[in-house]
């Protein structure tokens, strides 16, 4: 299958290895991956901050950068949720209405695409250790992704997936929320990390780099014995890393 890859700005700027591992995972699943180097952002930061005119401009560039007939895959439930759910607020009854609807129907978060479209769940990945999976708010509530990442992680050799207390509770990032309400945001990160450590986890895994950035910041500041990993990096571990 031919797919177009959308690399979110978060991953492009801070976690480029996750983007490369996403390509490796997709290619191992039998996909031919196309990447438009002119792509930028989906517009979510501006939209969430209330700057809808600016979000509209960025969103139009996103729509221009992808074919409405192609499958689009991204290693981000957050960006997928933005396009699928909130582009309606920006582009309903505009000149790009029809293309927007087609793109909304063709964009998939990585784990959702692998499990529900390709029916592919084994990559030969190896990662020794114990982990918990963090359900991001966007993945769980906007994209309705829950079992898909867990099904993929169950096939990773050496990895033991542990139950996480309050795993459906927000990690506290929330984009500008973490800036405007930093004390609350930090307390929510502490709760999530404390629960992971109490479960005996060495890794916190998720579909969203923004959540992981937030949690890793708290972990690093407090020198805690746990590490975050994006699911694409886990699936490429042991065979796909350079």
Structural description of this entry:
The chain is of the alpha/beta class. The chain folds into 2 domains: 2-117, no CATH class; 126-235, Rossmann fold. Helices cover 50% and strands 15% of the residues. The chain contains 13 helices and 8 strands. Helix 12 (209-221) links the parallel strand 7 (203-206) and strand 8 (227-230). Helix 7 (110-117) crosses helix 9.
Short characterization:
The model has no long low-confidence stretch (mean pLDDT 93).
Counting DSSP H or I runs of 4 or more residues, the number of helices is: 13
Biggest sheet, open or closed, and with what strands and sense? 4 strands, parallel
Strand order in the sheet with the most strands:
2-1-3-4
Please give the alpha-carbon distance between the first and last residues.
25 Å
User: What integer is the average pLDDT?
Assistant: 93
Low-confidence stretches: none
Query: What's the structural domain tally?
Result: 2
Number of beta-strand segments: 8
- The percentage of residues in β strands lies in 5-15%
Topology pattern, helix = H, strand = E: EHHEHHEHHEHEHHEHHEHEH
Q: Nearest-angstrom radius of gyration?
A: 17 Å
Structural class assignment: alpha/beta
Helix content: 40-55%
Overall geometry = globular
